[in-house]
Amino acid sequence: MAEAPGTSPRRGGRFPVRRLLVVAIVVVAGLVLWLLLKPGRHAGDEQFTGYVVSDDIYMSSPVGGTLTRVSVRRGQRVNAGAALFRVDPTVREAQTEQARATIAANRAQVEQQRAGLGHARADLAAAQADADRYGTEVRRLTAAQREKQGAIAQLDLDQARASYEGALRKRDAARTQLQSASAAISAAEAQVRQAEAGLTSAKRELSDLSPPAPAAGRIEDVMFKPGESVPANTPIVSIVPDGEVKVRFYVPQSRVNAYRPGRKVAIGCDGCAGGMTATVEFVANRPEYTPPVIYSVDAREKLVFLVEALPSNPRALTPGQPMDVAPDAAALPRR
Predict the structure, then answer these.
(1) 187-221 burial, b for 16+ CB within 10 Å, e for fewer?
(2) Residue 160: what are its φ and ψ, rounded to 5°?
(3) Number of Cα atoms under 13 Å in the Cβ half of residue 153
(4) What distance in Å separates the CA atoms of residue 182 and residue 92, rounded to the nearest whole number?
(5) Residues 6 or more apart from 316 whose CB is under 8 A from it?
(6) Which of 88, 114, 147, 199 shows the smallest number of beta carbons within 10 Å?
(7) What pLDDT digit, counting tens, does each position of 260-297 carry?
């Protein structure tokens, strides 16, 4: 019996619909399975999102001048004590030489005054000896005159007394001269100390024209080029010290007591090596309602406390870089 017209087309039209339904069911099932099994944050995981910060050091010269040399470039790593830059030292070198010359002159003055002090002491000793001799002679003549009236001529006694009084005046004058010489030495020695202090200051200013790196770190920026005039106390080079790189994150008030200074936490970031840790250094004593920088879209806590931790490998981190923080490495998101 012949098939009724149109039977085959109706049967064939049902097959695509069934296929679409099966494909849709498979896609939905796969999506649900992926949502259930995907890596990420599970219930009970304690994870925080933070970022890297640093306390930069700004190197400058306390004396203005022309920048003659820049020994570093942006992004370069430097060790503690490395040369950074140099400001023209001509003026400070001249001041240093002038201070040395002043010290030499003052020391020569001290030696001269010491020689004068020696002469003053010798004069005082001679004057004292004369005063003692004439004093002894006056006492002898006076005693003889007292024992026998007329035994000593009055003229001899008067001359002895005049000589004794003259010797006393010379002795007093020698003492005054000795005191003056001593005061002159003290003044000359004070001038030497003042000149030495000036030399120390000049040397310090000279060294400040080319300060070394105070700590190992990375050059963040170079603000001037050789040949430019640099004002005093104006930053020329900024350094990100390794010891001042920190991971800053925010902990809900319900968990802040678990993050005290000294606690270690696990940290991770995109492209970072595994196994990095950080030690909590600071916990704010006041809460905040909104972190100043938010990298996470699923923050649930409004009341949070700022926490800063020192990373175990600061060289691997860059200020501003987003970081994941967790109590241990197992709680960090898999990347």
Answers:
(1) ebbebbeebbebbeebeebbeebbbebeebbbbbe
(2) -65, -40
(3) 4
(4) 35
(5) 272, 273, 276
(6) 147
(7) 999 999 999 888 888 899 999 999 988 876 555 554 54
What interhelical angle do 154-208 and 90-147 show, nearest 10? 160
Distance between CA atoms of residues 279 and 262, nearest Å:
6
Is 0.85 topped by the overall pTM?
no
Question: Is the Cβ–Cβ distance between 84 and 212 less than 8 Å?
Answer: yes
| Residue 303 backbone zone (phi > 0: left; psi -120 to 50: alpha; other: beta) | beta
CATH 2.60.40.10 describes domain 57-81+212-238:
no
Amino acid at 47: Q
Q: Does domain 48-55+241-331 have CATH number 2.40.30.170?
A: yes
Residue in 288, 286, 277, 289 with CA at minimum distance from that of residue 313: 277
